Amino acid sequence: MKTDLRLTDTNAASDSTGRTWGLEGSLFWWLVGGIGAAITAFFLLLVVLKMTLGVSLGIALVPLALCLAYIFGLRQGKPPGYDRDCLEYVLSGRGFGPEADRVRLPKHPLL
Fold first, then answer.
1. What pLDDT sits at residue 82?
2. pLDDT (tens digit per residue) in 37-64
3. d(Cα 101, Cα 111) in Å, to the nearest integer?
4. What is the pLDDT of residues 29-38, one digit of tens each?
């Protein structure tokens, strides 16, 4: 009986966040939340506020469309933190590069 065991390092894929329905990581929950918000808004508009079917459906699709825009525009296939960088860029004008006051420009040796 041979007792020599060969040990090798392997990648157990513990760094993967997984996929659900083709969506990376936990983006599936954003989709579920958007669908839930759309259904809730639809029934509130239709039953409580007595709006017509078409108007209720049109307004209720807005939360779903916003969730889908967030998922596919800012998260799916993008690097981590891309959505936060975009928000920071919109709010303050920076976010994709180093801050201007921290950038050190090299000085010319003759100046």
1. 87
2. 999 999 999 999 999 999 999 999 999 9
3. 21
4. 999 999 999 9
Q: Give the dihedral sign, CA 11/12/13/15.
A: negative
Q: Cα-atom radius of gyration of the chain, to the nearest Å?
A: 25
Over the chain, what HEC string results? CCCCCCCCCCCCCCCCCCEECCEECCHHHHHHHHHHHHHHHHHHHHHHCCCCHHHHHHHHHHHHHHHHHHHHHHHCCCCCCHHHHHHHHHHHCCCCCCCHHHCCCCCCCCC
Burial class (CB in 10 A: 0-12, 13-18, 19+), 27: buried
Q: What sign does the CA torsion over 87, 93, 96, 100 have?
A: negative
For residues 64-87, average pLDDT: 90
Where b means 16+ CB within 10 Å and e means fewer, 30-62 reads bbeebeebbeebbeebbeeeebeeeebeebbee
